Amino acid sequence: MNVMYFEKDKNYKIHAGRIINCDGFFAAGRAPGSTLYVAENRIAAITHRNEVYRFSRPDRTAVEVDLAGLTIVPPLIDCHVHLALDGIDFTAALKRWDNQAELDRSIQEQLRDTLDCGILAVRDGGDRRGIARQAKSRYNAPLIKSPVHALRKPKTYGAFLGQGTKQQELENVLDHLATLGADHVKVIVSGVVSFKEYGQVGPVQYTYEELAQIVHGAHHRGLKVMAHASSDEAVSLSIAAGVDTVEHGYFLSDDSLAGLAEKRIPWLPTVIPVAAQLRNPTTGGSDRHNRYVIEKTVERQLAMINKAPGLGVVLGVGTDAGAGGVRHGYGFHQELELYKNAGLSNSQILQSATLNGANILNLDWGRIEPGYPAAFIAVAGNPLDNLAPLKHLKYAFLPGDSTSKQQ
């Protein structure tokens, strides 16, 4: 896989076998044989190969790239990861937090895997040490969005995600996060899904007034709120409080789906961290009852994903990468396969994995159209016919250069 960084003072002419664009509703392919022109890090024009386009600054160095036989697709975006964890061994990952050299190696490997899988941006869900924030300042690609750490009540679920915050400390903590450069606020609204008792989820942590205060405080500072919320109670509370995305959302109801659609709140179903437990003997994969609970939980989540587009719910793709059994990068394509199992079309899945993700991360990516940033990937084959080519990235293209940070 090759990464190419566009230089602002050069003109680029890129011949593509096919271009897939997202128009806000679904992904669609342009006629084969298009040529894409890039100037000043943005798409200047798209023409058929026989058409002629003249750059506004023809005096600049021209670079021609032949991607004949390849398909250009908007960047894949993972809207929920944990770079501080590796998805293999939770305890070992926590120990690495105290060994900077080992931690650096692990982060670099995870980001390389992410990039190799065509994911050019990730949104982190936080960790107690702010490790993703550190990675954000050091690596060029993929682009990293970090909340620094998550907000949660003291003595509740999520100690590895963030120190407990008392409600009276909230304004000071939000100020501190904003000062540290947080890209969004992550709040733990509920506990986690049980793998032993079907339908059981850890308790809701906040009252409506408390959660609304967090949302208002974050929005006042220009920060969106991603809410860890499983159980219908937690999801409906999050909707009422005005969060910007609902993460997980296990056991949400049809009414909550309708609420998400009405408020235009994206949902990140994160199916793979639960489905992955079927392969893990320590969490129930080898226990008949636990396996039944996990399978039934996944089945219900897929059924709700199937309903979501028809109700107008905006779906993003988030993997919870770093959670047990979910490796960075690879888990993304497993999540896409689960969306396919839920009955979504390839077009709907591509829309969720690209443009919807870009909107969730406040990026003006996701469209291959004149005026938009020159950020896209190239794969062999047509993902509208078969998603498998997305696993085999040939090129990644990004605006900027590769000199300022590591890759």
UniProtKB/TrEMBL annotation:
Cross-referenced Pfam families = Amidohydro_1
Q: Fetch the SUPFAM superfamilies from UniProt.
A: Composite domain of metallo-dependent hydrolases, Metallo-dependent hydrolases
Entry's InterPro entries? Amidohydro-rel, Metal-dep_hydrolase_composite, Metal_Hydrolase, Metallo-dep_Hydrolase
The Gene Ontology terms for molecular function here are:
hydrolase activity, acting on carbon-nitrogen (but not peptide) bonds
Every copy of the Amidohydrolase-related domain together lies at 71-390
Q: Would you tell me the protein name for this molecule?
A: Imidazolonepropionase
* Originating species: Desulfotruncus arcticus DSM 17038
